[in-house]
Amino acid sequence: MGRSVPLWSILLVAACSLLAAVESREVVCYYGTWAVSRQNGGGFDINNINPALCTQLVYAFFDIGPDGSIVPSDANVASGQYNMLAKFSDLKQRYPALKTIAAVGGWSATDNFTPMATNAQRRATFVRSVVALLQKYRFDGLDVDWEYPTDKGVFVQLLRDLAAAFAPSKYLLTVAVGGTSFEAINRYDIPAIASIVNFINLMTYDLQGDYGVTRHQAALYPGSAALDNSDYKRALNAEAVITYWLSKGAPASKLNLGIPLYGRTFKLANPSVNGVGAPVSGVGTKGPITQEAGILAYYEICSSPTLTRKQYDSAQVGAFASGGGEWVSYDSVESIGQKCDVIAKYGLGGGMVWAIDMDDFAGKCGSKFPLMTALNN
Questions:
Q1: Per the record's keyword annotation, is Lipoprotein included, yes or no (predicted)?
Q2: Residue among 286, 335, 328, 296 nearest 312 (CA)
């Protein structure tokens, strides 16, 4: 039986596609390279990528060795069984307009930043090794994903050293940042960072917090007064992040709005109470493919046999679904369309996704890459 496509989805996709084409917005696609080894139909290799959907493709992640040099987080993925570095290099050769970026850090590689960045010798080793890596594998630049710096000056000095080394070859330098005002005020010298890097990728997701109730993980706007009943909670939305960074001197053209292609899940305390703000008893069950408690890829959400009660919150801008005693917050084609409007409204550089391997790349629920297509075709 054929699938009908709502008119609003066609119009939103067309609007965002026109936005990217006419105004040359960035579409930054992080690729969690470990996805290549996922089982049960979730394995995502270089051949699954449609390069036309991204302006920047980001290899996640590299780590930092004891001497300060940049090293692959997973040698088996990078150069062993899956040979991902060679595949990235080949992709760049086949699609020269695509910018390929090496990302260092991530949520599991935080501890090694400080020993490197606070020691001049190890910092110099890091910078030299990064340049060698970019040259060897044809990367166009580096993304620094330090989650999270504890010394603003140390972070800025690291970026300055990298920028100086990158200048002769015109390599790109970008950062991924935890964007809320409560994070940024103690971690980032925003004017200094903005003067050094090419782009700032705002991680405007994982904003649900741990409050014992369901919340959108990537809301565009604040919730009700009852739900967002503190200054901190009222900062947990994308527009608040955007306006804060702009107010502190970040150029709009350097800011990329982060959009998750996965959902955050909860177990409902009472399955019959399943709206935003419903009591929860913990994080949701592992997905059949991603195998991480509290997280589902979009392709697991759209194909779930239990998460069948799908709803949309037009006030905060976010989709959610429930069923089987579980609840998930995620971005849909509709919410991404509205985020495209906000990108245009504030004149941002573009959008960023975590992660391209979590979209419906195989077309389980219809056309392939529906969320990526909604952001940029």
A1: no
A2: 335
pLDDT, mean of residues 233-238: 97
Q: What is the DSSP letter of 213?
A: B
The one-letter code for the residue type at 36 is V
Task: Check: CB of residue 136 under 8 Å from CB of residue 80.
Answer: no
In order of 97, 127, 291, 296, 297, the CA distances from 288 in angstroms are 36, 40, 6, 9, 10
Q: Using CA atoms, how far apart are residues 120 and 115, in angstroms rounded to an integer?
A: 10
**What does the DSSP 8-state code read for residue 26?**
E
Nearby residues of 256 by Cβ (< 8 Å), 6 or more positions away: 26, 28, 199, 200, 201, 202, 348, 349, 350, 351, 352
Q: How many CB atoms lie within 10 A of CB 189?
A: 18
> In the 3-class helix/strand/coil scheme, how is 278-338 assigned residue by residue?
CEEEEECCCCCCCCCCCEEEHHHHHCCCCCCEEEEECCCCEEEEEECCEEEEECCHHHHHH
- What DSSP element (H or E) covers 91? helix 84-94
Cβ-based burial of 233 (10 A; exposed 0-12, middle 13-18, buried ≥19): middle
CB 271 within 8 A of CB 322: yes
How far, in Å, CA of 105 to CA of 113, rounded?
8
Distance (Å, whole) CA 227 – CA 224: 5
Q: According to the model, what pLDDT value does residue 140 have? A: 99
Contact, 319 vs 331, CB < 8 A?
yes
> In order of start, what are the domains of the chain with their CATH numbers?
26-260+332-376 (3.20.20.80)
Q: What angle do CA 204, 96, 35 make, to 5 degrees?
A: 45
Q: Are 27 and 375 in contact (CB under 8 A)?
A: yes
Which are the contacts of 45, defined by CB distance < 8 A and separation ≥ 6? 36, 82, 87
The tens digit of pLDDT for each residue in 200-235 reads 999 999 999 889 999 999 999 999 999 999 999 999
Listed in order, strand segments (DSSP E) in 179-294 are 199-202, 255-260, 262-268, 280-283
- Residue pLDDT, tens place only, 244-272: 999 999 999 999 999 999 999 999 999 99
